[in-house]
Specification:
The protein has 358 residues and is α/β, with parallel strands linked by helices. It has helices spanning 21-31, 44-50, 98-111, 121-128, 136-146, 155-161, 202-209, 227-236, 254-258, 275-282, 312-322, 327-338, 343-355, and strands at 2-6, 35-43, 58-62, 65-72, 92-96, 115-119, 149-152, 165-166, 188-193, 216-221, 243-246, 263-265, 286-290, 306-308.
Length: 358
């Protein structure tokens, strides 16, 4: 089977400003024996606003994946016959993100192939926020309506947008430990791996830790627009000895850092899924996420992790509780739960949905 992935959110040349989720799925299809290439329709103004790197039009190869990068200046206004078309034959189109769905739909007027749209929280925002109503909302609605199947990245999106199937992130089986043996006894060690942007609510964690009754260390790994503000907040609260912000680290170093900690916290809003939650659970950390976001449905609250509303009181109550529970017993259930999200299991279900339309 030959698949064309269409998404503006596909990384080129180690662009750390773009998450790896679309790349992960494309590479997973290739691992399962499919022939895959990528069309990356890049709306330049949008990339500049998001702080993404810009690349010239052309063909790129990343991890032996063929990627067509096509830049444009106006939102989906271009010569449809020449701009999007690729002189290759495919069996299936899979699109991610609003611009990906819209461009895949335009391209498919010529190709007329089965088209699966995978919806993220960005799609929900475009369909529900007023600022997108002038153009993108109606265009996205048309693209989704003409999709052969719609997959949702989390339970919330599946219910709200009436998707056909659920498609959470996955984790490789070898990354899941059998048990965690090294909980820190003297202090609670807490970690966050994330972009340092406002919606991640890392400032709330810092403000909360000023109020807790137990000893702790908190390490934050990442970079972003909020970095200076967060560093100033640490100083203002006199927490320099307990809270450290470190630069973004390569993915192959993440598990080494996770293994030294007890709790992973990321109380972000508008989170589509967040594979970092799965990675933390796989290494035996107690995970704290936000209600009604991507991790809700992965975590069973108070049994395999904790789900909160992102405010200081709830963060404090949960951290105080975690400090006194039997962490070993709690993590046993969490590790059993994360096995449901092994790569082979998620991709097998994905293929079952694809078979319905091929």
């Amino acid at each position: 089977m030959k698949i064309l992935f269409v998404s503006d959110l596909y990384p080129l040349k180690n662009d750390k400003t773009i998450p790896l989720v679309v790349e992960d799925f494309a590479l997973a299809f290739r691992d399962f024996g499919c022939d895959v290439c990528v069309l990356r329709p890049n709306f330049i103004i949008n990339s500049i606003i998001r702080g993404h790197k810009l690349f010239k039009n052309g063909i790129y190869y990343e991890k032996n994946m063929k990627i067509y990068n096509r830049n444009y200046f106006l939102p989906c206004v271009f010569d449809k016959n020449n701009f999007l078309y690729i002189e290759e034959e495919f069996d299936l189109i899979i699109s991610h993100m609003p611009l990906g769905h819209i461009c895949a739909d335009l391209l498919n007027k010529k190709l007329n192939l089965p088209h699966i749209s995978i919806i993220h929280h960005s799609d929900y925002r475009v369909l529900n926020e007023l600022k997108y109503s002038f153009y993108f909302k109606n265009r996205l609605k048309k693209a989704l309506k003409k999709s052969t199947l719609i997959g949702a990245r989390n339970r919330f999106l599946k219910e709200k947008l009436h998707a056909d199937f659920l498609l959470p992130s996955f984790i490789e089986e070898e990354k899941i430990i059998s048990e965690k043996k090294n909980f820190n006894k003297d202090k609670l060690k807490i970690i966050t791996l994330s972009k340092l942007i406002k919606r991640k609510n890392i400032d709330l964690v810092i403000k909360t830790l000023k109020k807790v009754s137990f000893d702790f260390e908190y390490e934050i790994y990442g970079s972003g627009k909020e970095e200076r503000k967060l560093k100033n907040l640490i100083i203002e609260n006199n927490l320099q000895d307990k809270i450290k912000i470190h630069p973004h680290i390569p993915h192959n170093q993440i598990f080494e850092k996770l293994d030294k900690n007890d709790v992973f916290i990321l109380p972000s809003i508008n989170e589509t899924f967040g594979v970092s939650y799965l990675e933390a659970m796989a290494r035996g950390l107690i995970v704290i996420g936000t209600k009604n976001t991507g991790v809700d449905g992965v975590i069973e609250n108070d049994k395999t992790g904790f789900l909160i509303n992102p405010n200081i009181k709830e963060i404090k109550d949960i951290l105080e509780k975690i400090n006194f529970i039997n962490k070993e017993e709690f993590v046993k259930k969490s590790l059993e739960n994360v096995k449901k999200f092994q790569k082979e299991k998620i991709m097998t279900k994905y293929f079952e949905n694809i078979k319905k339309i091929l």
